[in-house]
Design brief:
Helix content: 40-55%
Number of domains: 1
Organism: Portibacter lacus
Bound molecules: adenosine-5'-triphosphate
Shape: globular
CATH class: Alpha Beta
Strand order of the largest sheet: 2-3-1-4-5-6
Largest sheet: 6 strands, parallel
InterPro entries: DCK/DGK (IPR002624), Deoxyribonucleoside_kinase (IPR050566), DNK_dom (IPR031314), P-loop_NTPase (IPR027417)
Protein name: Deoxynucleoside kinase domain-containing protein
Structural class: alpha/beta
Number of helices: 8
Keywords: ATP-binding, Nucleotide-binding
CATH topology: Rossmann fold
GO molecular function: ATP binding; deoxynucleoside kinase activity
CATH architecture: 3-Layer(aba) Sandwich
Number of strands: 6
Mean pLDDT: 94
CATH superfamily: P-loop containing nucleotide triphosphate hydrolases
């Protein structure tokens, strides 16, 4: 099985985090934590006018994620073999860093740090890496109305925020998997391949593996 109790799947918008987690959940007895982004009423407004709605959106995401993680992570789960989430709490900070003005970000970061102290780090953080072109294809394929004008620049900013963060991670393993156009939903071999990567033990710090042939 997996040598980790708490695995988080990360990646840019449209990288396939949720699909992968759902596939794993069908196969394993894992506690599944999925992002409830549909509940964020400010998200469509944010995509219309990022400057105006950034702080509202980020505070809403942080509060909702905090509530969800408090519910799931702060007690021991005896009924599942491991916990799998399609986001890590730090995602909140990584988006906020790019979306908020500097003074807003400083206050947000203080609040984030206080809240984050109560949550454990993942035992393994997996990042699905795909090029902006592929992300755009995935985003338009799923056809969420409010996401239709996401720019390449925005996706690159989010990607950079993750990579800047990974550079300083020394306390738990981060596994970056280069996927590009690899489809693990349609092709089970790809899914198996990713799963097998999650069965290996990694030392703390960043590891990068390519699935691209
Ligand atoms: N902190 C945030 N600030 C702004 N927008 C956010 C934030 N967190 C999530 N979002 C937005 O919420 C929506 C869902 O995001 P998320 O990345 O979790 O799922 P996804 O794109 O469906 O991922 P995947 O396709 O990999 O499952 C996206 O439009 C994303 O940009």
């Amino acid at each position: 099985m997996f040598p980790y109790n708490y695995i988080t799947i990360e990646g840019n918008i449209g990288s396939g985090k949720t699909s992968f987690c759902k596939m794993m959940h069908e196969e394993y007895s894992c506690r599944l934590i999925l992002e409830q982004f549909d509940d964020n009423p400010f998200l469509p407004f944010f995509y219309e006018d990022m400057n105006r709605f950034a702080l509202t959106v980020e505070l809403f995401f942080m509060t909702e994620r905090m509530k969800q993680l408090q519910k799931h992570l702060l007690y021991q789960d005896l009924f599942h073999d491991f916990t799998l989430a399609d986001y890590t709490f730090v995602k909140t900070l990584l988006f906020a860093r790019k979306n908020l003005a500097d003074d807003e970000y400083r206050i947000f970061q203080k609040l984030f740090n206080t809240l984050n102290n109560s949550f454990p780090n993942p035992d393994l953080l997996v990042y699905f890496h795909r090029s902006v072109d592929i992300l755009q294809k995935n985003i338009s394929k799923r056809g969420r109305e409010y996401e239709k004008n996401i720019s390449d620049e925005y996706l690159l900013k989010i990607q950079n925020s993750y990579f800047e963060y990974f550079r300083n991670i020394l306390t738990f393993p981060v596994l970056i998997i280069d996927l590009n156009d690899i489809d693990f939903v349609a092709n089970k071999k790809n899914y198996e391949h990713i799963k097998n990567l999650l069965k290996k033990e990694y030392l703390p710090g960043v590891h990068r593996i390519s699935l691209i042939l």
